[in-house]
Amino acid sequence: MLEFLSRERIIAPPGFNRWKVPPASIAIHLCIGSVYAWSIYNPPLTRLYGVVNSASSDWSLQDVTWIFSVAIVFLGLAAALAGHWLDKVGPRLMGTAAAVLWGGGYLIGGLGIFTHQLWLLYFGYGVLGGCGLGLGYVSPVSTLIKWFPDRRGMATGMAIMGFGGGAMIGAPLKRYFIQYFYDAPEYLGTVDHVNLITKAGRRFVERAGEQLEVVVVGANELAGMLVAGPEGVYVVGTGSVGVAETFLVLGILYFIVMVIASFSYRVPADDWQPEGWTPPRDDDSASKMMTSHNVDIEEAMKTPQFYKLWVVLCMNVSAGIGVLGVASTMMSEIFGTTLPGIVDGAFAAIYVSMISVFNMLGRFIWASFSDYIGRKNTYWIFFALGILLYCSVPFAAQQVSANPAVAWLVLFYAATMIIFTMYGGGFATIPAYLADVFGTKYVGGIHGRLLTAWSTAGVVGPLAITSFRESAVTRAITDLVSKIDPADFQAHYGAGLDQLSQLVSAQTVTIASLMEIAPAGTIDPTSSLYNNTMYLMAALLCIGLVANATMKPVDNKHYLPD
Questions:
Q1: Mapping DSSP to helix (H, G, I), strand (E, B) and coil, where does residue 441 land?
Q2: pLDDT at 51
Q3: Strand bridging mode 232-235 / 202-207
Q4: Are 174 and 40 within 8 A, CB to CB?
Q5: Which among 82, 202, 218, 426 is most buried, taking Cβ atoms within 10 Å?
Q6: CB-side exposure of 308: number of CA atoms within 13 Å?
Q7: For residue 203, is it within any domain?
Q8: Cα–Cα distance, 561 to 320 (Å, whole number)
Q9: How far apart are CA 122 and CA 143, in angstroms?
Q10: Which 3 state secondary structure label does DSSP give 213?
Q11: 3-class state of residue 376 by DSSP
């Protein structure tokens, strides 16, 4: 079996049409690129018991967001270790291994959801699935660079375009299966018709001598329901959000598609080059900082250029990946309360899909454009324009809170879509940047090691956005409680202000529920929860801008002899 999957078995014969290779690369990246639609899983994973709202035993948003981070960390680590291996075993074996890990990780993650074992979800989707992401990510990149040495930017754009577009298909697919398997919990009626009891921050009702834990859905929380239902009281532990079944179905589907695509790979012979093309000379490509020489993997690690490019990628990814991990939640929180008639769960899912569309388009368009203006100039645009756009997001959130108008939603939408074209374009351009600086011979291995920057960004970005959000939520709740009459608080929650910490921990007290009893004219602080995070992302781009500005060609002493 290993011999059948080996590199020697897939060397293309003379006259092979190189355009047959990109579809296999895109198919694999469409499957693993669905990781960018992770935010679709956030609402159901934080409501496994409550279903319509988070119960006291449910996982927090921070718990499930870190699963996405773990997957990205292991993506980078697996890519770094497998980059050199790819040059020996070939893309078919690596693609098949990626299918086993990614599909199998989904199945194990689904088992963790069924049993409510968070560690199984981390291990399955995060560790095993993340390794599958890394193997599946690097296998097409160096393959297509070897097939298209005359158009490196376009080649890497094609290779990585599917990864950016994975969420375009994955988001509606995940939402469809979640709704298909969704089962509404038992409904007890409106708050006025149910006798609620509060104990240690949790809400209960008494029925037939037994106390049942319940969750309450208020008017401000209707837009956040996975499937529309009436406001009122629901029994915890009844019904299903459908996410476990979704994991099992998608795990099998992704495995089948990735195996078929892996068997379609072909690699060029070592002496192959496009008809009528000659490699560029250094003096012909000086303006674009391209070399016709090659640098070994270990030697590349000794150059300052490698670490500057590492910083460039890390800063660009950190700024975007944190937003990707909570995109659906962020859209709902910023605009769900201010524009409830427009922004709901379906709108947020479409938003995630559109992120994928622009992410995918950016990978191909920016990478192809870099063939003409050079990689360094392309990154100049990414960082300079990105700083301005990230700073515009808090402005839009601030304005929509004071004046709920669709214009601010349009501004937010446009700014984030442009940001994600450059986020995807950064991924697609970096392999060509590496090939320009270090040559094409070992670009697969060098690219794999550079992807440890992605692992770092997978921690920095989500950690920043979730930490800043949690701090903002705490401040907002404290501020709102200070404006509410203690008697109104007691009547609404069945407990006094002395139990506030317990009520918050049990997810009984939320910003949305507090706004129901806040004095008239109180501004909902939900839309401003991400303001500080956006300014931090702009600061990270400033660091990347400096690293890119100081990039120079590699010293001649690092080149391999011709």
A1: coil
A2: 93
A3: unpaired
A4: yes
A5: 426
A6: 18
A7: no
A8: 40
A9: 31
A10: strand
A11: helix
Whether the Cβ atoms of residue 62 and residue 347 lie closer than 8 Å to each other: no
Q: Which pLDDT does position 12 carry in this prediction?
A: 84
Q: How far is CA 32 from the centre of its chain?
A: 11
* Rounded-to-integer distance, Cα 306 and Cα 269, Å: 28
Name the strands in the sheet holding 232-235, side by side, starting at the edge strand that comes first in the sequence: 187-189, 232-235, 210-217, 202-207, 197-199
- Report the C-alpha gap between 165 and 152 in whole angstroms: 20
Nearest CA to 203 out of 45, 50, 42, 43 is that of: 50
Classified as helix, coil or strand, 215 is: strand
Alpha helices in 326-344 (DSSP H): 327-335
Per-residue pLDDT tens for 319-333? 887 777 677 778 888
**Which of the four pLDDT bands, split at 50, 70 and 90, describes residue 288?**
low
Q: Burial, 112: exposed, middle or buried (Cβ in 10 Å; 0-12, 13-18, 19+)?
A: buried
CA distance 537 to 189: 44
Instruction: For the chain, state the CA radius of gyration.
Output: 25
Three-state SS sequence of 167-210: HHHHHHHHHHHHHHHCECCCEEECHHHCCCEEECCEEEEEECCE
pLDDT tens for residues 386-444? 999 999 988 988 888 778 888 888 998 999 899 989 988 888 889 889 988 998 778 87
- The CATH number assigned to the domain holding 130 equals 1.20.1250.20
Residues 506 and 56: beta-carbon distance below 8 Å: yes
pLDDT for the residue numbered 212: 92
- Residue 228 within any structural domain of the chain: no
DSSP string, 495-560: S-GGGHHHHHHTT-S-HHHHHTTSPTTPPPGGGGTTHHHHHHHHHHHHHHHHHHHT--PPPGGGSP
The residues, ordered by sequence, that sit 6+ positions from 372 with a Cβ below 8 Å of its Cβ are: none
Q: Is residue 233, in this structure, part of any structural domain at all?
A: no
Residue 246 lies in a domain: yes
Q: Give the count of domains, the chain.
A: 1
Who's near 478: CB < 8 A, 6+ residues apart? none
Task: Provide the residue range defining the domain that includes 411.
Answer: 21-183+240-269+297-484+519-552
